[in-house]
Amino acid sequence: MRRSLFTGLLLLCSSIGLSGCWDRTEINDVAFVIGTSVDKEKNLYRSTLQIALPGNLGGSGSQGGGGGTSGDKKYYLESKTGITLRKSFLEVQEGNSRKISFSHRRTLLIGEEVAKEGISSMLDQFARIPQNRLSSLVAVTEGPAYMILDAQAPMEQFPSEMIRKLMNQFTKRPVTLKYLTNDLLTDGIDVSLPYFSLQEAVPEGLTETKTKKNIQITGLALFKGDKLVGVLKGKEVRMINLAMNQATSPDILVPGPDGRGYVTIKLTENVVTLRPVIRGDDITMNMRILAKGSVIENDSDYSLDSERTMHKLEQNASKEIIQQIHSGLHLLQDKYHSDVLGFGRTIQEKDPPAWERFKDRWEKLYPTVKVVIDTELHVENIGAVDKPFGRKDEVLKHD
Amino acid sequence: MGKSKLGSGKSAGALPSGTALGLPSPPWEKLPIQKSLDQNIQTIKTIFKDCSDMVYRNLEIAPDITALVVYVEGIVFTTELETRIVEPIIEAYVRMMNADPEERIEASELVPLENTRISLSQVRSANEWVDVVEGILNASVAVFVDGLSDVRLFNIKGGIRRSVQEPETEAVIRGPREGFTETLRVNTALVRFKIKTPNLKMYSMVLGTNTKTDVVVSYIEGLADPKIVEDVINRLKDIKIDGILESGYIEELIEDHPYSPFPQMQYTERPDSVAAQLLEGRCAIFVDGTPFVLVVPVTFFQLTQASEDYYERFFITNFIRWIRYIFLFIGMFLPSLYIAVTTFHQDMLPTTLVLSIASAREAIPFPALVEALIMEISFEALREAGIRLPKAVGQAVSILGALVIGQAAVQAGIVSAPMVIIVSMTGIASFTIPHYNLAITIRLLRFPLMLLAGVLGLFGIILGTTWILVHVTKLTSLGVPYMSGISPFHSSDRKDIFVRAPWWKMGTRPSWLSRNNQEREKPEINGRPDSNKVW
């Protein structure tokens, strides 16, 4: 009895060893995708994968083996086309000796062309495959997205890592796949994504080799539905970002109170709230901006040494903020018709019956929404000096 | 199989003395002592034939009356023998000769010898050879007197034994520095020094038919659960073995679950630890010839606690206790978690970490499981070598081991650097457990967990952990649940399991011991500083 029981147990145990390991993948048989980009070529998706090369990451003992690819670069790009996005990934796998793992993809870049045609259809596979992180950050690029993936990122190991950090700096809550889909599916708000492009890092002629280009956020890609309708660029980007309550610490150039030079203020803390006021079909949005700022540069001749001058500075700064937000909103409402601030959703939240009335006509109503901006700005910190540092007292203004 | 020896139905009587297991019954068993000294000398010399350590000393005890002093050389206290036995007898004889040479003295007048000649308190008489032989072997000096069939046995146990030293296996920063020795009575005395109540009982028995080892079961009457005490004594009485050389023999012979990897008894070298356990209502088993005293019953959490926990202030103790718990977990699970995560669940690691592990493992020829097994086994070998090797060589081994395993293996590309970190962390973790027997269990269980992790990933670890938890919850030590305090849960036991409450909060003894006598202090009247009072 004991004997047969023991034999049975032994057989049972050995079966673990035989059958086991069915999904075992050694860490060195996995190709870690750090970032991907999606582009369109005719009817095909072109997906480009940025795959980390562990052999070049400089772990001790790794000198001996690993891919001897592409010099000392820490990643390499592999790009294939396919009818669907997933198909193009599968094509990449065909040509890769290691199992491609998307579980560490941190950024997903969408080329401008794809975005213009709509992004809804390609989102499915991101959610369907559990390995994909819904926390990947999504951005739109100027031109083909793979160009950005291969750009210089001297500070980071991978360009996609740089993109991720830039996006974290840019917004309070970076747009991940999860939030993107959420916004896509919600009525009354349109999607906006950071817009990346390559910028000259140094003036031409400084380096003898080919000019270096850096990755940079230069605008805000505005969507209507799932299609890219335009890109907001210039100084309004910052203020629209602020109006979306997403700006981390935007800076604003305030013309000196006497008109000469600029005082730069960084809004270190800011909270923006929206409150709709509805009379019939007249919709007014009350936008309230609470912000604390600090002066980080003063190249005007304006002295910041009294309560009164500070007050005046705050007023001027508020004026500047309001003016820039208005000019940005003008573009959003009249040019792109993209409700990235989520006016519709705000109405839906605060006044659901009203939203029921507007819902079907929102398209038409959105441009007519009036926005009243009310700021409460406190410049709390002016730095280590109150007067402009490099100027004589006699030339300073003290009004 | 393991249970049969615990059968309580058997009579508790020891084997008839003299019948050593595996030895033929001696012919002198039951033989009485003769009156004639010559006959007795002949018998004893036959019994102790070829025993060169026996000493026979003839003495004239009175005119025409000869006595024979018999003892084993080395195990009796020689000075005592000279001054208390031999010298008085000779002096008395000389006095007698000088005083009145004509006066005759009868042998019977000398009886009992301890009243007339020898001033030693530990004395008994024997009429049978069995008792005499046993007495002599137990460091008594036997005195045969011609014409008397009554042998006097004077116990002057001596010989060279180790003195009280600092315990090496349980070092503390704060706390008594004395440790048990190999001498039973020194050990019991060390505890008696600490607990001065007649309720501290020392139940004595002799185990081992050849070694005749003295074993003492100690407990505090009124605190220890009488059932447990009775159980311990009965189990000890059931032991039939030829020799007990260390308390480990007894531990294995009387534990509840011989097939469990978990220790069900605590051994300690520290009298203060034993005293503390006795005061909580446990029993201690002292065994002659070893400094390790067994404490029963134990719980899992008791084995994760050091005696110092109760001497240092409770903030520090709680911190250290939690460090220990964390490292207990690390010591058990870290290698298997590493294996599972690197071979099955790469997605669970932060990206930067997974990349640096991947980069370190790039040139490694083995799968993570094999790599881990190589490293863990060589670490265990290194540890074992460190214990066995003479102290002078030990250091060389540790340097060699650190270099070979730590650095050269990584540089040669045989083992990855993260693995070395994992193994060293695990090694350190297993040394944070204060009781070696639990530490070695944890180290042992690591290996099946590693195999499970290598085969089934995290699922395997969960499987293994569940098995261990079920086993541990089922386990008992002398009938007391191993997880007492948590399972079964008793709210008053919270004070000394995950935290160590300050002494002014330790109002009761553990609930699973001394059930009828729970209160151990009156916290409200102790000299605890009153927060409203200015001192």
TrEMBL record, chain A:
Membrane topology: Lipid-anchor
Residues annotated as domain Spore germination GerAC-like C-terminal: 218-383
Top-rank lineage group of the source organism: Bacteria
GO cellular component: membrane
Pfam families: Spore_GerAC, Spore_GerAC_N
Keyword hit for Lipoprotein: yes
Keyword flag Signal: yes
Main location: membrane
Signal sequence, renumbered to the chain: 1-19
Location relative to the cell: Membrane
GO terms under biological process: spore germination
Family designation: Belongs to the GerABKC lipoprotein family.
Name this protein carries in UniProt: Ger(X)C family spore germination protein
Organism: Paenibacillus mangrovi
UniProtKB/TrEMBL annotation, chain B:
Composition bias, Basic and acidic residues: 517-535
InterPro entries assigned: Spore_Ger, UPF0353/GerABKA_families
BP terms from Gene Ontology: spore germination
Keywords, comma-separated and alphabetical: Membrane, Transmembrane, Transmembrane helix
Low complexity biased stretches: 1-15
Matches recorded under Pfam families: GerA
Record field: transmembrane: 322-344, 389-410, 416-437, 449-470
GO CC terms of this entry: membrane
Region (Disordered): 1-21, 515-535
Family in the record: Belongs to the GerABKA family.
UniProt protein name: Spore germination protein
Organism: Paenibacillus mangrovi
